[in-house]
Design brief:
Layout (H helix, E strand, L loop, with lengths): L1 E2 L5 E2 L1 H13 L3 H13 L7 H12 L4 H13 L7 H8 L1
Helix pairs in contact: 1-2, 2-3, 3-4, 4-5
Amino acid sequence: MYVDERGIIQDSQEAAKWYWPTAEQGYVDAQFRLGVMYDQGESVPQNYQEAVKYCRLASVQGHANALTGLGIMCGQGQGIAQDDVLAHMWLA
C-alpha cells in the first residue's frame, strides 16, 4: 500500500480483489491490469500463463497496451511458446 502523487491510497491487493470479477465479466482494463499483476507478481503470485491469459482477453478487445505486452511475452517465450511471427503480429 502506498500514497500516489495525488494523495490517494493505493492498495494493489484490494485492487486485485476487484479486478478478478470484472475481468471475468469482460472489462478490458481489469483484464489488462490483472495480466500486468501476474506478469510482475504484484499482489498475486507471479504466473506468466495467467498473465498471457488476461492480456490475450484484453488484446482481442483491442487494448493497445495488452497487445504490446502479449507481443513481448510471445517474443520472450514467457507463459507462451516463443514465436517471433506471432510476436510480430501482436506488436504490429
